[in-house]
Fold these 4 entries.
Entry 1:
Amino acid sequence: MTGGQAKGGGAGRTRTLAFWTIPLSLLVLGIKLLAWHLTGSVALLSDALESIVNVVAAIAAFVAIVYAAKPADHDHQFGHHKAEYISAVIEGVAIVVAALLIFKEAIGELFDPSMPTDVGLGLGVNIFASLVNGVWAYVLISAGRSMRSPALVADGKHIRTDVVTSVGVVIGLGIALATGYPIFDPLIALAVAAHILFAGWQLIAESVGGLMDAALTGDEEDAIRKAILDNADGSSDVHDLKTRRAGSAAFIDFHLVVSEDMTVGEAHDICDRLEGAIKKAIPGSTLAIHVEPEGVKPHGVRVRID
């Protein structure tokens, strides 16, 4: 016995946030290119290179979120939710590419360092871009987590790595100016690149987990069990509980044991009650409840009903 999936009310907001990330990323890119042009700093150039990747990633995230929101069709009967995970993997790869570009520029400058010029103005421009990025990263990550949008969270984390890059750049240039040794400029760029590379790897690993049908969190499964225990009156057992997460959607499957003498209508009423309670506990969930008579040997994860 199955239940339909409720549509997420935050889909429109998710698309809106993803869309505005594109012009915002272009604006930040322009500001950082200006900072590099004013100073000639390889660290600022590495920062701008990462912002180019941000623009590409923002476009990919928007396309994925729009596609993921499409309703189920004949060829994709469980919906298009996993498109967001694909976008998140792409963003992770983009972060790694940005780190490698920074490595390339920084290593080249390491053997022939030069002191940047007009550093004060360049840093001021770069700091402004970082503030814009920092605020927007917080908005995207918070909204993405609340609406269970992997693409939006990935986009926010990507932008947050850009903020870390900028902080590293400011520190590197500050040390270079204070000591008179320009080599600190590429050295800090290398350190920032290493951090970005690690962040990209983490994002790829998390996103691949979603593509591999990772189960719901322990807290979510506890909420499901509580909903079952509180609303399964009339049945004698629940077993073989399975869950998986696909973007904003959750898929829940379990077996419901009832008396052999129970009518189909009575069993259906219990399923309706369980479905309503579980969807309230786990918004956006789709259920498959398999009704079976007493006497069938249970297997899998059990939820005891006393």
Entry 2:
Amino acid sequence: MEQFEGKVAVITGAASGIGRALAQRCASEGMQVALADVHPGKLQAVATELEESGCKVLTGVVNVADAEQMNAFAAQCRATFGDIHLLFNNAGILRVGMTWQHTAADWEKILSVNVLGVVNGINAFLPAMIEAQTDAHIVNTGSVGSLVAAPGMAQYTACKMAVRGITETLAYDLAALQSPVAVSLLCPGPVLTSISDELLGITDSAAATDAADHLMAGEPGFITPQLCADRVFAGIRANSFWIFTHPFKGYLRAKNEAMLEGSNPRYDEVTFDANP
């Protein structure tokens, strides 16, 4: 897909961070947008911002872990806009801690959002996208953690590796149908988002935190959500399955070579290539 003007995008986790930046980018491309999030204050702030720019916006306070809520939102989107052309399964939460310190309830919570949220988005929107037989694209938000593990990140890594598997399989299934619907896996590196807000005790407010005010602003390697969104749209235009915000071919190549050699896992901090 190369042209976006007049088309329709659906974004989950749209009230802040990467989701908010994707919504802004969609609006700048002349798209109509449907925004879903669990934080009504921030969601309405984003919607108001986009509407003031002339964008037609639909919002839904939706828990992506709830299949019925996602199905109802999808029906509302189709009733409002008709065909959906871009679907960003972006909503996600972060948990950290030693692998054995997470309860079953903790696991159920993060899996329900980070994995089933993607599944529910696919199930709610994709059948109609396939039936429409028009160019469309799905972007599932994974992570660098979709490819490499890190200490203290068992839950997040498990989720994001699952999203990679789901997304790769989805690509094969769509290819088997010769469907015009394409799919990408977004693997962000460090982005100035609010994914850690819940861990820090930060609750919903009417305004999303600007990247310039982020605790990690200015730290090496961190990029703005807007730059992330730019790279996502470049990936969609190029029909790239893999969308990396911070390419790390050298690091990944070394990891894969160690695995092929049968070396035991040894953690080295992820390093990114100099040129994106």
Entry 3:
Amino acid sequence: MTVIIILILAILFTERKNEGCPNLLPAVFADPCPKGWLGYQMKCYYFSVNEGNWTSGNSHCSSHNASLAVVGSQETLDFFLRYKSPPDHWIGLQKDSGQPWRWINGSIFTEGFFTLPTEKGRRCAYLNHKAVASSNCTREEFWICSKDMFKSIA
């Protein structure tokens, strides 16, 4: 089905090019994620090459119109663990004193496909070699940024 749609689009854009319209076909096939980012399930992800605390990782992501990544499913967790390489990486999960854990998008964390082990003073979450863990937010780690795929090409 996808092949048929692509062929129809190619024919339509070829015919319109002859009518004096700009050729939009390259945009259809362009990589929807910026260079150095990976696409997965309609999102673009950046696995940092630098280390910083949770706040600096979040600031870096924000400067690229992104945020620290939300782990919304077991499949996404598996993807991160497969591609993040061995070092730990910050994700977009944080806790203010006396408050519940919240994702960077404002939603409250509820245990489901993973449990977040926490100890007093540990307010930021990261991915280690096998799961999600928590730490103080000043620890130096890599990070994972995330943004919607089609916002990255706009």
Entry 4:
Amino acid sequence: MPHTIVRRAEAFGDDRAAILNAHAVHELGAGAPPLVLLHGFGSDQSIWSRLAPQLSAQRRVILYDHMGSGRSDLGHYDAARYATLDGYADDLVEVLDALDLRDVTLVGHSVSGMISLLGALRTDRIARLVMIGASPRYLNDTGYEGGFEPADVADFLGMMELDFQGWARTLAPRVLDHPDRPDLVEELSFSFCRSDAEITRRFAQATFLSDQRTVLGACPLPVLVLQSESDAIVPLSAAQVLAGQLPGGRLEMLKTRGHYPQLAAPHLLAAAIERFLAEPQA
């Protein structure tokens, strides 16, 4: 059944510029097909600072901040709307509509892989998906390894609430997994720390309690699933389930570690994305 997009007519009406301003939309380069890069929870569009310039050398690249993140307008944040990933997917469609984009390739990192998937079920503006370190479900289930038990998630959310700065400093080196790059650890930690603590905790809750396995089979698009050789957030088995249950899915391993290859190995990501874009579409 098609999803009914919840539009914010009372806030934006038909004002496309207002939608773009609310999400701090930023563009680089020119050329088709357009790429839209979506960041995960706890970060913002600056997480693409090493990858976006490489991709924009040949085509138009669009970045924006999820509502509540980065330079988005917090005046439009609604806790009820963003209690699940659906609100973020609705926002994605609104941004694509406001820019009147066609034949879009979405590049979604972490939870934005699933936001991209939900967006693809809402609009025909999207042609292909690239998911980086994405998971259809983070909680373990019978016959499924998501990587986390409910108690793990409760502890994770509790730490965010009690000591957000400490949570950020502890999480960054673990998920980056590059002890030889303290500069990147510091950059990621700073990215976490400058986020609004309560909104980030709510985004984390919507992320870790989501389960999108039942809709994977409904996605008609080619999907490239990119996975690092080791990832503290997403086990390889979850990436395999994701790619295996997407009708047009394919898993490609990246010869790097950690949950943030766009920081640690942007050249590998750029090459993988360019190869995918060069493939003929059926």
